[in-house]
Each structure stands twice: as C-alpha cells, then as structure tokens.
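User: Second chain of the day. Same drill as before.
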Amino acid sequence: MLLAGVGMRKKNLYILQVDVYLVGVSASVDLLKKVRGMVNVNLADQIRELVSSCDEGKQNVMASQDYCDLSITLKFQRQVSRQQILLAFVEAFEGCSPAAISIFQNAIGDVLGSSDLNLNDELTFDFTRSGRLTISKLNGSSSSVVNKEVFSRLLVVYLDSKKSVCPELVECINKQLPKITSDL
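Assistant: Same format as last time:
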C-alpha cells in the first residue's frame, strides 16, 4: 500500500472552523497501476469507481484471504464523542436505505464500544476486492460489513470530487497520484 493523499476534515463550529481529524488514503499498487496515465479525469473519482466495482460474487471469501485495495485512516485532532461520530455518519449516509444506515451504525458502534475518540485515536476503513468493509480502531477492535450500499457511500464521503467531506484530500490525491504512479 502506498499513501495516495492526505487532508484535514474541518468542521464549522459557530464562527470558527476547527480541525476534526486528519484523513489519509492508502492504495494498493495494483489499484494505482489501473489509474496510471489517466489524464483529464478526476483521479479520486476514478479510484472511487474502481474500488466500488468490487467483485460482489466473492463476498463470501474469508476475511483472511481477502485483499485490501484501499484504506482510509482518520487520525483525530480533538476529542469527538461516540454520539457525535454516529450522528456525523448518519448525516453522511443521508439518502441511503434505513437498512444500510443501521448496518453501518451497528458496525461502527461495535468498534467504538462505549468510548469516545480522543486526540490521536485512529479509525480505519479497509475496502477489499470482495466488497468487504472492515472498520477498526487502533486498539485492535474491528468489525466487518458486507453491504454494497455502505461500501459505496463511504467511498463517496471521502473520494467523490463533488461530495467529499474533505475536499483537501481529493485535491491532494489528484495532485500526487501522477507523481506516485509514474514510478510504478
């Protein structure tokens, strides 16, 4: 996996804009080779499309035999309560089916347990070729979801050129990928 881009998720609190978490995206060499040489396209959108076109026929593959093509890591820059995290993701999943929202809430709730996220805590989303999304916290707790709608929406939340909660991340990916992929 190679680091493809970073950005800061910011949130407006009244009249201030505060840093919430640093987000980093790492991609497999195989995935990066697929976008190598693409011109006049939004590379973050291309990665999102490639990853979301996972092989749904292989969703029953054992997690230990699955291959992660993309990883999104959030490193928190402040304390964020469990409730704030759950609410933020419910808002990000607006328009999704209630079942998809519930599946994601349960998975992320299992990872968080009853605790908040504190300064320097990390939350990671691993996207696999079989369509499995694994959510993990730095302390080792994790939960997996196999749901195409959840998988695709989370990719939109971070990598969509028009809807990303972190436009800085999308800009970084688009700027850095040509440099990264030229050596592959």
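The radius of gyration is 16 Å.

User: Great, on to the next one.
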